[in-house]
Design a protein that fits this description.
The complex is a heterodimer of chains A (227) and B (748). Chain A is of the alpha/beta class and 227 residues long. Chain A is built from five helices and eleven strands. Chain A has a single domain, classed as Rossmann fold, CATH 3.40.50. In chain A, strand 1, helix 1 and strand 2 form a beta-alpha-beta unit. The model of chain A has no long low-confidence stretch (mean pLDDT 95). Among the domains of chain B are: 213 residues, Phosphoribosyl-aminoimidazole Synthetase, Chain A, domain 2 (Alpha-Beta Complex); 205 residues, PurM-like C-terminal domain (Phosphoribosyl-aminoimidazole Synthetase, Chain A, domain 2, Alpha-Beta Complex). Classes of the chains: A alpha/beta (227), B alpha+beta (748). At the A-B interface, helix 1 and strand 6 of A face helix 6 and helix 8 of B.
Amino acid sequence: MNVAVIQFPGSNCDGDALHAARLTLDPDAQFVWHTDDGLPAGTDLVFLPGGFSYGDHLRSGAIAARSPIMNAVKAHAERGGYVLGVCNGFQVLTESGLLPGALSRNTDLHFLCRPVHLRVETTDTAFTGAYTAGQIIEIPIAHGEGNYYADAETVARLEGNGQVIFRYVDNPNGSLNDIAGIVSERGNVLGMMPHPERAVEALLGSEDGRGLFESLKGVLGKGVLVK
Amino acid sequence: MTASVPSLRDRAGTFGLSEGEYDLLVEGIGREPNALEAAIVGAMWSEHCGYKNSRPLFSAFPTTGPQVLQGPGENAGVVDIGDGWGVAFKMESHNHPSAVEPVQGAATGVGGILRDIFAMGARPFAVLDSLRFGDPDSPRTRFLVNGVVDGIAHYGNAIGVPTVGGEVTFHPSYQENPLVNVMALGLLRHEDLAKGTMGEVGNRIVYVGSKTGRDGLGGAVFASADLSDASQADRPAVQVGDPFMEKLLLEATLDVINAGVVAGVQDMGAAGLVSSTCEMAYRAGLGITMDLDRVPTRESGMVPMELCLSESQERMILVPVPGREDEMHALLDKWELDVIDIGQVEAHDRYRLTWRGEVVCDLPVALLNEAPKYTREGVESEEIRAARERDLSGLPVPADLGSVLLQLLAHPTIASKRPIYERFDHQVMTNTVVVPGAADAAVLRVKGSSKGVAATSDCNPRFVQLDPYTGAAAAVAEAARNLACVGATPLAITDNLNFGNPHRPEVYYQLQQAVQGIADACRALNTPVTGGNVSLYNQYVDQTTGRTVAIHPTPTIGMVGVLPDVAVRATLNLKAAGQTLYLLGTALAENDGDSIGASQYLETVHGLEAGRVPALDLDLEARVIAGTLALIRTHLTDTAHDCAEGGLAVALAEMGMASGVGLQVSLPGTARADALLYGEAHSRVVVAVTDTEATERTLTGLNVPFVRLGLSGGDSVTISLPEQDIQLSVKLTELKAAYDAPLREILG
């Protein structure tokens, strides 16, 4: 199980992502710089970390989505490889077209950092297999632009396909349908605003994010899971 | 009639120099300076850079100890926490910029202090903010609070350093002149400790980071004068921050320091290019020549005065190790920053600048760095003395003491700060073990080690106002006690001395007394001073009435401590029902009016700022700290909270509200009920324990006085004074409603 954490200029959860990946999945997880044009051979999971890539200039995630490494990430996703985008990583995924919709400013227009409760909507994905359906988990959020939006047709499709895998119990940002995390149609790309990498050690208050990495552990290395 | 051009000496004031200082400059260089030279000297001799009024007092500070890796004089102090790790830390003010442009003022306050930390070779890993505002109900205060919070969030969240603690208080003296003091901590391996020096002759001087613009011009001088309505016209003296650029600069700087290719590093802070290069030359005892034409600029037509004194943000000076210049440039290329060689270190003692082929500045390095020192005469204000000596014994004790508790909890100084800290990313970097609001200090783990680092910032300005010596010593004591309450051994302090205009004898008196108080407390508690910042001239001149309003003297203490094992710590919330509550430290109030002196209660309920500050016994303080640490480290308690604003009753209420577990206690004694409940004696800690016998044995063994208060449990805070037949009991939900609302409302 090989994990590559992509670093864009302005990424600031890159170290956290690497730390969590090493703790839970891959002791040899490594950074990949945004100007690289390829992923390390054998990469199973690409982790797009949180932060303010390119200083959020233009729109959050917009410039990172067009940086050289993203061609390789898209090719990896097309092959059915796993991609996890957290916070700014989620924004990069919607900006690059790997996931539908967009993240706009929180309804109260302020950055918000607090633990929130999420409901695990389905365990039938590579990212949630270790949870139980309907399980309530506590994961921190830290974002100013986490308000998920997509047109009605897209939202209906996401809901119909079971692509909404994490939902806020108490919506902190105005996201449509309380959406906190969605997967791609094939189920191999996950974007979520809450930070599972901040919840893998009891010392820091919650281990509820571990389930996500444990789930991946079950499928990684066994080839890709494509619907 | 011919208009005469005023001489440079007549214009000395515009450079921040007095005529006497101008004459001193002429005498020092043996000629008249040109305008650029006068401006450079004015900036270097400003209080902000040259500490001319404060430095003579600093000899009182203890600055050494086995835990000190780097004392005062560098970009930041560094303490040893063991296992080869050091913590660099410093606090700095951005008061005047925040008064006129709160968002950028506060944002660049964060940016500036972070650069001081990574200039030491340390990765910044925590920020604390000590913020003081005026009347919470006024539109101006709301504007400032919202702006400052937005500024800190904008910068800190984006750069990815967690904001883990601090203080926010309100008092009318800060109405026009708020205080924004930002403390940052960074982690380094001992071998990566970097210094702000030019190194040796022949070294290159390299400029890295943002281009130079016209922002922040004269900021050091602006920070060293009184505020007035006219200060709004000084908005160009406020810098504009770009956290994205700072993030690149941070990573780039740490890359080259870790690679061992730099001999010296310093950020360009107050007085920009000049102060950084000038101080580095001074530390090396050498001269330098720099070519101003090479300074990268944001706009065309910039003149030497602007190039030298701009305080454009996110700029560093790097001095490569000779022979490794190319390696340094190669490492920096990754970050796509401007990297420009602007000069060299030379074997003389001059600070030389050239522009368009001519020498435009040629001054002795020592003269620039050795600002004249002023020892002034301090005289205590009669008004303050009278307030302190006021007899309070005739004040009535309110009949409804329960509603007083609600009133105090709803005072914005005491009320929950959650609406503020939720706007700050306090968890990025995944080290934050104790989050804001959960305990008396923030606790961070050190990855790859079992240790924890704790940090706090403290000052009760009302104490300092009424008694600057005791008040300042009490700030040190409170900081140390707060660290003990999470299980950390206090190590060292940084101080941020915010005062009014030192030319006024009553202000100078406060400064003098406060410095002595800090020095004595630091000596007693073994927490040396490793650096700090001085912000004078925090007063506002009302131009219509001519009245001067000085801030309450506010020597903010930033203290850092170490937890040998981060797993062994305490927080303030009650963990379970049925535990026994003890009060460690000072016996309950004496029966006289002084026992409510200088309290928040007195101000909020009686509208009085008066009375004696409770006496501080530093020996007792040290024992209370030792007792608290002993209980935590022997696992007798994981619940500790110190008593501060609002006294024992507020501390108990906070412990109950934090987890929804109530308490029933009784306070012995016949002292005034308001003093027992709300008096603010120092050196007091409340703990909750299960093993009472071992607890009492431990405390007795360490000679720590204690009182058994009662038990945790229930859904209310119930406090009885059996000897006076008084009881108050308030539901936790009611307390919480009062406690949670005020800041939410102020932030809108």
